[in-house]
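User: Hi! I'm working on a homework problem where we have to compare a predicted structure to a textbook description. Could you give me the structure for the chain below?
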Amino acid sequence: MLTCIIMNQETKRKEMARKSLLKSESAAAVVVAAVLLLGLAFTLISVVKLNYVPEWKIDAEKDYSYDAWSNMEDVKTRADLFTRFMDSDSNYPYGLSATVPFSMGGGEIPVFDPSKSNGKLAVNTQGCTMSITLANHSNDPRPVDCGGITYYSENRQYPDQVFRYENGALILAQGNNSQMKRDPLFNISKYMGNYTVTINAINLTGETASISSSTFTALRLTGESIKPVFNSNDYGYLNESINSFNLTISTHYTDAWSTYLNNTAKEAKLEYGIDYKITYPDSDYVCLSFLPTDNNTYNIYINQTVICTELGGGFLTGDTVMKLGKWYNFNTVSDNGADSGVDLLSFKDYGTVVSFPANDPYDGVLNPYSKDNNVFYYDDKNTLELTFGFNGYTKLESKPTSATIRMIYHYTFTNTDPGSVQVAGENLSPLTGPNNEWCLYNKTTPIDITDPSDLTLDLQLNYQNPKYIEIDYLAVRLD
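Assistant: Happy to help. Predicted structure tokens:
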């Protein structure tokens, strides 16, 4: 009996040991299987990331670059539309705006590589100018400012590209090479042996600014004015026909411009080396020279479209700090319920190129001066009180001690002061420039402000029947 009991216990012990071993082997098998599956997953992910994700990343950044290029095409389209409207309609509503949204950055791959590359949008950070010089008047060039908008794709996999809009042209640049993809408003036509050169320059005004982001931003374009800046028929001192002149463009994208200018001249049936040539006066200059011949004469017409450009749609994103030593145009105005229809854009630009007098204070004649097309005009029978201010600036760079007001104005009455000026609660001397002359007002006063919202300008414009007052420019500087 005892022997049977001992044998049964031994059998049970062995059976329990066997079951325990089976459980251990089963657990180990699960662990091994999990490790194998995990390893397989990591292997698959690694294979995908090494062999497929780079290609997907390239495709994603290519798509993002196409979107950015489409945004830049929208910029050119809107600028061209503004130009045509302003040129064809004398009643064009100056101040009409359009906002172009930009999708900044891209190239993310969900799960495998969700990071996005940034895009950078810049306004007027690169210079661009154009000038006309007549052969017999080489010391009298006619410069035209252009400005520009630049988009940097900042890709990580797809080739990095730069999209540039300047002087009506849309340019694609990659490395040191550039190509013009959309042409500017430039035409050469021939009629009865005479060539007519017509150019519509695009001047992009606005503060220098840039933004680098991987989300969204907006670029606001506002059509301000269009005006003639050069007409070869207007110069009475020219007793001879124009048979040669130079068109020079200052640009970082000389390849694109030289190819375009060469093709345009060829399409007009001009022969290289005989009728024209292209030279590079400097590394960032390209010059189209129309050469003197016995057969060719030229008429030259240049208009300039002025378009205000603003990042962020309202004010310049990334530049919300008001700095000292910098001129600012006011961006808010109140006429105290007079319903005068004040347009702030009329205070941002001015007419012919002005060399502002260095001495301060100044209140005197600007001569010569021809007003801009977009000018504030007031001839109501009541005194007008305007209060200008700022919106969008969050703080001052440092506490200023003085403010300088600069204004270009013109009035046609003599018996009454044209108006009074007060900035940040401090009185400035009234307007005293000569009657019926375009005058510059440049006066400084001590101020005590702690916030950009405290920087207001109160301007009282008097009236004397039946005369009027005009203002072509208004700005303030803190020091």
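For your comparison, note the following. The CA atoms of residues 241 and 274 lie 18 Å apart. DSSP finds three helices and 29 strands in the chain. Good luck with the assignment!
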